[in-house]
Design goal:
Keywords: NAD
Family: Belongs to the ornithine cyclodeaminase/mu-crystallin family.
Order of helices and strands: EHHEEEEEHEHEHEHEEEEHEHEHEHEH
Organism: Xaviernesmea oryzae
Bound molecules: nicotinamide-adenine-dinucleotide
Radius of gyration: 22 Å
Number of domains: 2
CATH topology of the largest domain: Rossmann fold
CATH superfamily of the largest domain: NAD(P)-binding Rossmann-like Domain
Protein name: Ornithine cyclodeaminase
Structural class: alpha/beta
Largest sheet: 8 strands, parallel
CATH class of the largest domain: Alpha Beta
Distance between the termini: 14 Å
Helix content: 25-40%
Oligomer: single chain
Amino acid sequence: MSLPSPLAVVPFVSVENMMRLVLAIGVEEVLTALAAYIEEDFRRWDAFDKTPRVASHSLDGVIELMPTSDGRLYGFKYVNGHPKNTRDGKQTVTAFGVLSDVDSGYPILLSEMTILTALRTAATSAVAAKYLAPDNARVMAIIGNGAQSEFQALAFKALLGIDTLRLYDIDPAASRKCARNLAAKGFDITICPSCQEAVEGAGIITTVTADKQNATVLTDNMVGGGVHVNAIGGDCPGKTELHRDILLRSDIFVEFAPQTRIEGEIQQLAADHPVTELWQVMSGHREGRRSASQITLFDSVGFATEDFSALRYVRDQLMQTGLYDELDLLADPDEPRDLYGMLMRAAGPAL
Ligand SMILES: NC(=O)c1ccc[n+]([C@@H]2O[C@H](COP(=O)([O-])OP(=O)(O)OC[C@H]3O[C@@H](n4cnc5c(N)ncnc54)[C@H](O)[C@@H]3O)[C@@H](O)[C@H]2O)c1
C-alpha cells in the first residue's frame, strides 16, 4: 500500500508527547501560557458559538461532548466523569479533543486531553482568581487531593503567588501523594485532619472532590468574609460540593450561565439567581472583587472555549517542538469522488 498523502495526515499528540511537551516547556510556564490563551478567548466571547455541553448520563458517570467555534477554527472535546473509576485503577476524568479548519472542515489536530484538561482547568481557575481573589492571598486550602489537585496548586503559584497549601482529602493517602508531588515546588504544605482545619487562614479555598451526589464538602460556617472559593468538583446535575447558604452569601461568577445553571453549584438556586459571566469581568463590563469582605465564588464546570484555547496553544507548539505523530486519519483519493476506487486499488491487481 502507498504512503498516506499530506492531505490524509493529521498531527496527533499522544499522552507521551503531551508529557514531553509539558516537561520541555515547564509545567508552570505551560499553565501561564494556557492562562493567557484562555483569557484571550474569554475576551472575544462574542466570536464563539456557545452551547451547553452535550451530556450522556449513566448511573455511575457521564460522557460529554464540548463543541465550539470562532468561525475560523472548530474544536470539541470528548470527556468523561466517573468518580467510581479510581477504585478500579482508572481515572475519574479522561479526555481527547480535535481542532478543525472551519473553511474545509478538515481536522488539523487530534490530541490527548486528560493531562491537557487538568492543565486548562487549573489555568482557568487561576485566571478567574486573578480578578476575584483577595490581593494578599498567599494561603490556599485544597479540598480533594486527586488527579487535578497538583495542577491547581501550581497554577495558583504561577499566577497568584500562592506559597502555602493546606490539604484535606477523605482519603489521607491522596493528601500524602499530593504533598509528595509538590514537595520540591517551594510550597509550605500542611496536611490537615479535617476540612474545617484545612480552610483555617486560607484566602482561597479550592474544592476539587469527586462524588456522584450532592455532597456538602464545605458547610456555611467554614467560609468567612473576604474568601475566594474556587469550586471545581460540582460539575454535573445532582453533583455539588457547597452548602446552599454559602452560595447565598457569595457573589457568583460562572463560565457560561446556561451550562452552569444545569451543572454547577447554582443548580441549587433559583433559575434567575444573579450571576456574572467571567468574560464580563475580563473585558471590564462587570466588576470582579469589589471589597475586602466580599465572598467571591467561581462556580467552575469547565466550558468548551477553554478546551478550544488549550488545543490552540498545543497546536502553536507543534512546529517548534516536533512533538507529534502523523496520523493517517483522512481518506484522500487521487480523485476526490473516487473513494471506492481508492479502496479497490488498495486490494491490488489480484482482486
Ligand atoms: N470544573 C472543571 O472544569 C473540571 C475539570 C476537571 C475535573 N473536574 C471535576 O473535579 C473533580 C476532581 O477530579 P479529579 O480528576 O481530581 O478526581 P479524583 O477522583 O482523582 O480525585 C478526587 C478526590 O476527592 C476526594 N474526595 C471525595 N469526596 C471528598 C470529600 N467529601 N472531602 C474531601 N475529599 C473528597 C477523593 O478521595 C479523591 O482523592 C471531579 O468531580 C471532576 O469531575 C472539574
